[in-house]
Amino acid sequence: MKAPLDRRHLHRLDVQGFDSVDEGILAEVGSWLRLAMALCASLAIIGTALVSIPLLWALTGVALAGALFPVHPFDLIYNLGIRHVRGTGPLPKRGLPGRFACVLATLWLVGTIWAFQSPKPALGYVLGFSLGSVGLLVGTTHICVPSIMWRAVFGPPAPRPAGES
Hints:
The chain is mostly helical. 71% of the residues lie in helices and 0% in strands.
């Protein structure tokens, strides 16, 4: 098992909806929770740079699945492959704040596609690259702006019991 997470890192994961997940599990696999978001961000940036409508539509489907199901499709890369090599357990299921982020990403991608297919392609670049930037932020630091928005509306994560942080 890895060393315990520092308070800042643990709080960022709690904001994303992992507040009911044991801290030991998060210490072991928490960094791998970034993989799905980093892949989504990278694909959004590539799809935007290439103005690849098929890639952006495919990513829209991935984002929608991430919104509808507690296991993000890209988490399966870890769950079905990487974890067996590492000898660790599966990633924890994603909570409502993280799934809300996928709802926003779905809508953001549809807006990006619409802009590229309209007489406003510059807006497509702005939307696509800004989505990629928000995704890279969570993919590199665990700071999830949509999850922060969720928490602002529905309340902060429950405090962890004493001794867990």
